[in-house]
């Protein structure tokens, strides 16, 4: 899986890793978490409400968040589109800031006095969208318990949620709540989008910074190279032919059809019974079906493949 059509997810992953690395290098991790007492109530460090979303405080949280974002963020961005996905991410971060501050005020008497550093709520908000939108690819059982391929992602998410109890669990629950609110349209958050000027600025200046998002190049050959077969058989490729190749194929198809018709007439007139004449001639229906399935493969190659199949 590549980052094709998922530039925001790649930028988010790079940003989390880079800010966490910088925080560790410059030894500012103690400024990253959000704590009600004494940072907010006594020292009035309200800037922590924003900065605690920027970086994680340890490498294990970074690894878990990166794996979760790569597994779920790419799929959600491709379904939402980059503009809607970045709007959803910003809305999730702003809503998480408000809800986390309210949670600290309401729950500090029961032990929830701080929120761990990192965009945990945003990650779980994206995870909720993935849970609702992306179906399971396959299912299996372990000791009779039915599971799906999505269980591995949930295991990673549970480790992130339980890493810094009770604050990490509260932040994860807030993220799931934000995803539910966004999905259920209770406050109609889906309609907000970033402005076109911001999109143009990001496309021009920020998109080149994250590098290429194109998928890896697909191999042209559909089977392993074999020098003994190249001289006798056609090379079947899956890559799209160029314009010149398409013209060459068209002329080759015309010549091949003409030569096959002439060869058939000659065989009927002369009564030839060699191996070439005894090969079963594919019907037009079979050739038409395979041509519709593989439009970029020439007719001559398809005919040869059918002849070898029924030889």
Question: What's a concise summary of this model?
Answer:
By secondary structure, the chain is mostly helical. It has 14 helices and four strands.
Keywords:
311 residues, mainly alpha, two-stranded antiparallel ribbon, two-stranded antiparallel sheet, 60% helix
What this model shows, in words?
It contains 14 helices and 4 strands. A hairpin with a 2-residue loop joins strand 3 and strand 4 (145-148). By secondary structure, it is mostly helical. Mean pLDDT is 83; it is low at 227-233. It is 60% helix and 4% strand. It is elongated, with a radius of gyration of 30 Å. The strands form 2 sheets. The chain has a two-stranded antiparallel ribbon with strand order 1-2. It has a two-stranded antiparallel ribbon with strand order 3-4.
Tertiary shape: elongated
User: Oligomeric status of the shown chains?
Assistant: single chain
Identify the strand order in the major beta sheet. Answer: 1-2
Residue runs with pLDDT of under 50 for 5 or more positions: 227-233
Helix content range of the residues, please? 55-70%
Number of DSSP E strands: 4
Q: How many H/I helices?
A: 14
Mean pLDDT: 83
What's the order of the H and E elements? HEHHHHEHEEHHHHHHHH
Distance between the termini: 40 Å
- CA radius of gyration: 30 Å
Note the main sheet. Answer: 2 strands, antiparallel
Which strand-content bin applies to the residues?
A: under 5%
- Structural class given helices, strands, pairing? mainly alpha
